[in-house]
């Protein structure tokens, strides 16, 4: 849209030119959507091609014996292992266990992290005091905390959730805080000129303005939450995808390891697509930006 | 001093000065001493070279920053904190991208309180007056620069502020868009009988819109001169106004004062 249309949008909105203007905007929009869709199809096609070639090469090399299927697994072996776990139903219990741990850790970590991160906006002093502690906590490799979480939370569900939460919470704090502090100071001045209270500024400006960053954080931390849960399962567990991967690995059942990995990847993709969908639904204004 | 406090004058700046402390620890004098008034219903422009402290002065007036010296009086009184009834508008439209045009216009009303329905009605009325009635539910990202600034103008006017403080609000717009929004601003400010302090570096804009133009010097800034703009004919016809001889005279005069210092 250009400002040349300026004269058509002064004074009265009944001006027919304004609606013509909207109509051409609509046409252009449709054309752009079609072009984007075509491009997306091309990308998808190339992605499928890459996948098929890779799997084909792998299968061919292991079938001819150039590459050891025992050490590297094979696509057909992975497929067979997948079918087997689906048949005996174990994949569902493992999937559910890991998914629940991940979701609980993801939710807990992000609720704590976002609340803390955003509320640090209220006091520059407190945030500066806490900064080194947050950074120190962030630099701890989460796996190093696994033994302690087992001592504190036992070997069951709770310790996996704790690992998952820990993997999420620091990143979540930092992202929410950055989002809150990234608000344009002129925007704050505008609110101050309206004599808005700090609490109103927080609610009307800071929280919604941070949403873009917070959702970027959610997309990032959904993966971290899954890693945390799986690391927790590696340490001690009776079920879960991490448990199965660990067990199959120690039995040199490489195809079974890959089969569980495939399930894990599917879980990760499903979880992150849920986050994307929720974002689209909660932040409708973001569509218009691209 | 007491005789200077005029309760009928919306805004008085008395011997205002501001120095910033630089990172090196030195005092940087930005505004030396500035005194002026804004009377009820008056449009006054402040022009000055870029970086002379115009934005700083505006922030001093509405108490977003503290002066190093001098006083600001709102209706004859010193206000602690931001005074009530200020409409603050910048070059940046500062529209909230997650709010539709009408919701952006409602922002100031929402801060003041009241019912949502009343806010919506008032916002719609202003959008209609600014020719944006059909775009009420559009998000800012789908509007042109000129339209966005119109929405910002509606947002500023919605809470019916007594005094408008505008900081180069039209300087990012192309000439045609600018003239149109200037004309609408002028019409609404006059209709609503508001007082407007307009900061600009555009001398022609200052002369065409104002009752008075105050010229500021380079940093540390002081007032160089003040011009009462008296032009014949219809002041709302901004294009015709620019062709009158008086207009060119004022513009030339102010340009000289801006440059020769
Ligand atoms: N908070 C601050 N600290 C130090 N210097 C500042 C600060 N704010 C503005 N300045 C300086 O004051 C001068 C005037 O700025 P400004 O008021 O924005 O000028 P103008 O609006 O006339 O272009 C600039 O040189 C700027 O660098
Ligand atoms: Mg400025």
Produce the secondary structure layout.
The complex is a heterodimer of chains A (290) and B (261).
Chain A: H1 16-63, H2 69-72, H3 75-87, H4 90-119, H5 124-139, H6 146-153, H7 157-181, H8 185-193, H9 198-235, H10 241-250, H11 254-282
Chain B: E1 11-21, E2 27-38, E3 43-47, H1 54-61, E4 69-74, E5 86-89, H2 101-105, H3 107-112, H4 116-129, H5 145-157, E6 163-167, H6 175-192, E7 195-200, H7 203-209, E8 212-216, E9 221-228, H8 238-243, H9 245-259
Parallel strand pairs in B: 2-9, 3-7, 3-8, 5-6, 6-7
Antiparallel strand pairs in B: 1-2, 1-4, 8-9
Adenosine-5'-diphosphate is lined by residues 20, 28, 30, 48, 50-56 of chain B.
Task: Describe this structure in a few short sentences.
By secondary structure, chain A is an all-alpha fold. Chain A has helices spanning 16-63, 69-72, 75-87, 90-119, 124-139, 146-153, 157-181, 185-193, 198-235, 241-250, 254-282.
- For the record, the CATH class of the largest domain in chain A is Mainly Alpha
Strand pairing plus helix content of chain B: what structural class? Answer: alpha/beta
Subunit arrangement of the protein: heterodimer
- The CATH topology label of the largest domain in chain A is MetI-like fold
Number of domains of chain A: 2
Summed up, the helix count of chain B is 9
CATH superfamily of the largest domain in chain B: P-loop containing nucleotide triphosphate hydrolases
Number of strands of chain A: 0
Please give the most extensive interface between any two protein chains, plus how many residues each contributes.
A-B, 37 and 45 residues
Structural class of the helices, strands and pairings of chain A? mainly alpha
Q: Mean of residue pLDDT of chain B?
A: 92
Assign the CATH superfamily of the largest domain in chain A. MetI-like
**Average residue-wise pLDDT of chain A:** 89
Number of helices of chain A: 11
Major beta sheet summary of chain A: none
Give the tally of structural domains of chain B: 2
């Amino acid at each position: 849209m250009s400002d040349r249309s300026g004269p058509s949008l002064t004074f009265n909105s009944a001006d027919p030119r304004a609606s013509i203007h909207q109509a051409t905007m609509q046409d252009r929009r449709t054309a752009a959507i079609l072009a984007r869709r075509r491009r997306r199809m091309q990308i998808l096609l190339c992605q499928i091609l890459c996948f098929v070639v890779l799997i084909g090469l792998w299968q061919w090399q292991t079938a001819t014996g150039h590459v050891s299927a025992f050490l590297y697994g094979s696509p057909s072996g992975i497929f067979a292992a997948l079918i087997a776990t689906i048949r005996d139903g174990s994949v569902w219990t493992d999937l559910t266990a890991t998914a629940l741990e991940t979701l609980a850790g993801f939710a807990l970590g992000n609720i704590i992290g976002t609340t803390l991160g955003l509320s640090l906006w209220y006091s520059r002093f407190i945030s500066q005091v806490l900064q080194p502690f947050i950074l120190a906590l962030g630099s701890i490799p989460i796996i190093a905390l696994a033994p302690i979480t087992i001592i504190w939370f036992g070997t069951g569900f709770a310790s996996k959730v704790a690992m998952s939460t820990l993997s999420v919470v620091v990143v979540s704090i930092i992202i929410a805080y950055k989002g809150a502090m990234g608000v344009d100071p002129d925007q704050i001045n505008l609110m101050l000129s309206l004599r808005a209270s700090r609490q109103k500024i927080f609610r009307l400006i800071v929280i919604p303005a941070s949403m873009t960053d917070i959702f970027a954080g959610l997309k990032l931390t959904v993966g971290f939450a899954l890693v945390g849960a799986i690391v927790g399962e590696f340490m001690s567990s009776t079920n879960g995808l991490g448990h199965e991967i660990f067990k199959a690995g120690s039995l040199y059942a490489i195809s079974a390891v890959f089969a569980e990995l495939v399930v894990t990847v599917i879980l990760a993709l499903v979880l992150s697509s849920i986050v994307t969908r929720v974002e689209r639904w909660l932040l409708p204004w973001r569509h218009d930006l691209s | 001093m007491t005789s200077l406090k005029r309760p009928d004058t919306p805004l008085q700046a008395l011997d205002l000065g501001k120095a910033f402390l630089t990172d090196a620890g030195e005092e940087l004098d930005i505004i030396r001493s500035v005194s002026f008034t804004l009377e009820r219903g008056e449009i006054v422009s402040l022009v000055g070279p870029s970086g002379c402290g115009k934005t700083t002065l505006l922030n001093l007036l509405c108490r977003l920053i503290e002066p190093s010296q001098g006083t600001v009086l709102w209706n004859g009184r010193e206000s602690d904190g931001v005074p009530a009834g200020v409409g603050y508008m910048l070059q940046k439209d500062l529209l909230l991208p997650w709010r539709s045009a009408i919701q952006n216009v409602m922002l100031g009303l929402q801060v003041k309180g009241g019912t949502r329905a009343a806010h919506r009605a008032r916002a719609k009325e202003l959008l209609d007056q600014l020719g944006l009635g059909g775009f009420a539910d559009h998000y800012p990202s789908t509007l042109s620069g000129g339209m966005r600034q119109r929405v910002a103008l509606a947002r500023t006017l919605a809470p019916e502020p007594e005094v408008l403080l505008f900081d180069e609000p039209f300087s990012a717009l192309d000439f045609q868009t600018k003239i149109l929004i200037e004309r609408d601003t002028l019409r609404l400010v006059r209709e609503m009988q508001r007082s407007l302090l307009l900061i600009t570096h555009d001398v022609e804009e200052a002369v065409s819109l104002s009752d008075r133009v105050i010229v500021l010097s380079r940093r540390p800034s002081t007032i160089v001169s003040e011009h009462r703009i008296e032009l014949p004919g219809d002041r709302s016809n901004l294009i015709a106004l620019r062709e009158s001889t008086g207009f060119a005279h004022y513009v030339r005069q102010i340009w000289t004062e801006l440059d020769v210092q």
